[in-house]
Amino acid sequence: MGVRVLKFGGTSVATKQTRELVIHHIERELKEGHQLVVVVSAMGRSGDPYATDTLLSLASEEGGELPSREKDLLMGCGEIISAVVLCGALQARSIPAVALTGGGAGILTSSQFGEARIEEIRTDRMKHHLDQGEVVVVTGFQGQDSRGDLTTLGRGGSDTSATALGAALQAQIVDIYTDVNGILTADPRIVKDAKPLTVVGYAEICNMARLGAKVIHPRAVEIAQQARIPLRVRSTFSDEEGTLVTDLPTALSLAAPLKDRHVTGIAHVQGVTQISVRAVEGIGDTQLKVFQSMARHHISVDLINVTLAGALYTVMDADADKAVRVLRDLGFEPETVSGCAKVSVIGGGMHRVPGVMARIVEALAEQGIPILQSADSNTTIWVLVREEHMGNALRALHAKFELHL
Ligand code: ADP
Ligand code: ASP
Ligand code: MG
Asked: 20 CB contacts (<8 Å, ≥6 apart)?
């Protein structure tokens, strides 16, 4: 029947009760005759004893900043605990299983601790265990570099582990099990009537993930797309099939209503600062100086708007003080608005459709929400609003484009 990869996120493996549900999904797949690689995240969320953020806080309590290599070693513990506990629970039910670290499963990466790139996956060890009839439980988020050091793949990287393993094993499907019923039209924590999308194209979901939809890591979607492996995002807490992410022709053929949909979903990123720099007489080539200096200081810039009068752009709040210092040192007097949110209206179907921006402006104006800045592409319109307006903005846009229907 072929290999399937099942990935369970932090809330899915958090407690004995939720792990029972995980095992229920594993048993169902085994009954159907599939060979299984199960990828797990660290248990629970921030504050839970073995969650990634909790482990990190242990080190920060000691003061100072851990070197990135040691930080990866520390973070890697969360997934190891999770994999071993789940493996034990399977064995206790007489389901043959083995737990492997990322390195043990053959995931070889660069040495860029904290953001390592997968360079190669050696599948022999996993295939050996699968051929023995064992469920292979792999720690998500982890790899190993050429020196044998444990590396991590970036926060939320267990999704990436899952699709990369799926690609290497030419899996039939990669199932990402989480705490929501699939990829929804917006974050359900903010938009209560957000609706699961049944089938969508890789590119659109990758875009949505990059723009803040934290339900799946964008790199995971890219890998699935390159390997042409179907990806499903579904809930551990139900038997519903969730969202199928696949290539666009398949998505279109499976979901006729997609054809008429202009907007697919709305995503958001908080903690953004808007910076405006006025071109100053005597300071030649303002544009060049501003952006070269941001690049030199590794400050990533977004929503860039360059005119003869100067430059308007955004950085993450965490980089704002540094950006301002750098600009002042160059002789500029930047103005900043911190605590903003970037709200993105995303839809492959909005290309050449008139009136989408008008509806966005209308939705926000009806709520009295000022737009601080905007930009657009073929498939996305971004608006910058103050963080205190973000929830209302998301809900108003969701309603305006009737995404709840
Ligand atoms: P896991 O630990 O399973 O990886 P995450 O917390 O990483 O779970 O992702 C699931 C969460 O993503 C949901 O609880 C939800 O609040 C959030 N989320 C943000 N945007 C979306 C969206 N468009 N659709 C579904 N969930 C979303
Ligand atoms: N545990 C890791 C994190 O919190 C990886 C993951 O959950 O995907 O970022
Ligand atoms: Mg996640």
From this structure: none
Cα of 181 to ligand 3 centre, how many Å?
14
Q: Are 230 and 368 in contact (CB under 8 A)?
A: no
C-beta 189 within 6 A of ligand 1: yes
Q: Can you tell me the distance from the alpha carbon of 215 to that of 205, in angstroms, rounded to the nearest whole number?
A: 10
The Cα 257–Cα 237 span in angstroms is 27
Could you read off the pLDDT of 341-378 as tens digits, one per residue? 999 999 988 878 889 999 999 999 999 999 999 999 98
Per the DSSP assignment, residues forming a β-bridge with 386 are 340
Report which protein residue has its CA nearest ligand 2's atom 8. Answer: 156
CA 248 to chain centre: 20
Q: Is the pLDDT of residue 259 over 70?
A: no
Contact residues for 143 (Cβ-Cβ < 8 A; gap 6+): 102, 103, 107, 108, 109, 116, 118, 150, 151, 152, 153, 161
Q: What digits encode the pLDDT tens for the residues 203-220?
A: 999 999 999 999 999 999
β-partners of residue 277 are 311
- Residues, CB within 5 angstroms of ligand 3 (ion): 9, 156
Ligand minimally distant from the alpha carbon of residue 42: 2
Going by their DSSP bridges, the two strands 380-386 and 335-346 should be labelled as antiparallel
Residue ranges of E strands in 279-317: 302-307, 310-316
Query: Under DSSP, is residue 376 helix (H, G, I), strand (E, B) or coil?
Result: strand
Closest residue CA from atom 7 of ligand 1:
215
What was the pLDDT predicted at 351? 79
Containing H/E element for 27?
helix 16-31
pLDDT confidence of residue 167: 98
CA 219 to chain CA centroid, Å, is 8
Question: Does residue 256 carry a pLDDT above 70?
Answer: no
Ligand located closest to 156 CA = 2
Phi, psi (deg, nearest 5) at residue 233:
-110, 120
CA distance 175 to 39: 10
What contacts 354, CB < 8 A, 6 or more positions away? none
